[in-house]
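User: Predict the structure for this protein chain, please.
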Amino acid sequence: MAIDVLPWLEYRWSFDFPVGMYRPILERLRGTPDRVAAIVDGRTTAALTARGGSPWSAQEHLGHLIQVEQLWETRISEFLAGASHLTAADMTNRATEGADHNRAPVEEIVARFRAVRTGTLARLDPLTLDDAARVAHHPRLDRAMRLVDLCFFAAEHDDHHLAMSRALLAGEE
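Assistant: Here is the predicted structure, written as structure tokens:
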């Protein structure tokens, strides 16, 4: 089965939107746990854990969001501390590979992701637009990025993995 979702490393961003988009971007992040729950609703374990020729199953794509949330938290702390450079992502995804998300009940993955995202939003919600405009260097993109850009980047990352999950599950219908 061919999956017609652009590979994550091929995405490109301009980050030329106004910092005033911070609150609407947070709304995108706030909605992801409900979208994760909707994707898995009524799906069998067999469908959720099948890889269909892909390196990860739909459930592993969704579980990956839990591990990446830890990186977002680290980077938020770096922005707020005035760091000039952000922590690099582990591009080998060791944490996701080691988590063995296919062995966990999908309800646990949904609940864990909801909990970590709620924690992230609890940190982001009280911030000001001045905070959202703070700048640091993103290592993989090799460019300056504002905190609002990081939030947009995280929302895009969420959408990528949700799209991958849906594409994998579409092959199981």
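The mean pLDDT is 92.
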